[in-house]
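User: I've been trying to design a sequence by hand for this structure and keep getting stuck. Would you show me what you'd pick, starting by listing the structure so we're on the same page?

Assistant: Good idea, let's start from the same input. This is the structure you sent:
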């Protein structure tokens, strides 16, 4: 009889201790900090601190920064952190932040909190075009499909970018900035020119119309000048680059590819 009572008491104590252990498990599952450190991200020149607002995390990286493989550094009060079912290690695990990834912080009691992480590029800094770099202006002639001259195009290198001047003949010349590009050291960027400088700063554009037609995709009938800024376009204006004018054809119908030496 004594053994039975002793066994009952022991069993009761066991369940009480077990219940106490379960009650002690924490239910916290929150990020307490989130950032991208230059020490673990070669694409960054300085640390970027993110903002945590509820379950939304936002951060802004410099314009032109590749977000396809960034390493996040974070602290949390949970048991573990995962993204897409993969365990995350602060300062180690790289992820693609060019889209909106979701992180999960799991608590000790296995409850969890989901976080969205939005990493955006900041708008480019508006800078002046600088002064003429000393490099030679390059002039090419554009022809229509019938071999008739339709424009004269002048590219002038500057210390902080370059200018493109389109001088159409009387009938005009069709030019669209979405089909033109800049190439340097194997990297190609579309020349995306805003209608005026008042449209900047914006991550959508890397230049603006200085004079002439404010439309950047039309048949030009007036002399028009585009300004392309090196800071916004992400190229070194002190080194050679190539401007590919897809809508400015030579006499054989091939688009003009112009090598610029600043």
């Amino acid at each position: 009889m004594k053994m039975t009572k002793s066994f009952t008491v022991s069993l009761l104590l066991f369940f009480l201790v077990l219940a106490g252990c379960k009650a002690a498990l924490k239910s916290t599952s929150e990020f307490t900090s989130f950032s991208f450190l230059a020490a673990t991200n070669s694409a960054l020149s300085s640390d970027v601190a993110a903002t945590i607002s509820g379950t939304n995390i936002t951060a802004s990286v410099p314009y032109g920064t590749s977000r396809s493989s960034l390493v996040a550094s974070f602290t949390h009060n949970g048991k573990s952190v995962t993204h897409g079912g993969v365990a995350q290690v602060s300062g180690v695990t790289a992820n693609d932040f060019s889209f909106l990834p979701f992180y999960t912080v799991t608590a000790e009691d296995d409850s969890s909190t989901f976080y969205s992480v939005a990493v955006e590029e900041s708008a480019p800094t508006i800078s002046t075009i600088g002064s003429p770099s000393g490099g030679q202006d390059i002039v090419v002639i554009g022809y229509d499909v019938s071999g008739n001259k339709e424009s004269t195009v002048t590219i002038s290198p500057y210390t902080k970018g370059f200018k493109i001047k389109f001088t159409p003949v009387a009938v005009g010349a069709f030019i669209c900035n979405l089909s033109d590009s800049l190439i340097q050291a194997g990297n190609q960027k579309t020349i995306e020119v805003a209608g005026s400088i008042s449209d900047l700063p914006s991550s959508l554009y890397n230049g603006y119309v200085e004079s002439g037609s404010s439309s950047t995709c039309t048949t030009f009938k007036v002399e028009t000048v585009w300004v392309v800024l090196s800071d916004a376009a992400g190229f070194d204006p002190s080194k050679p680059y190539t401007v590919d004018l897809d809508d400015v054809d030579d006499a054989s119908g091939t688009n003009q590819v112009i090598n610029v030496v600043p």
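That's my pick for every position. To get oriented when you compare it with your attempt: The mean pLDDT is 87. Residues 138-260 form one domain.
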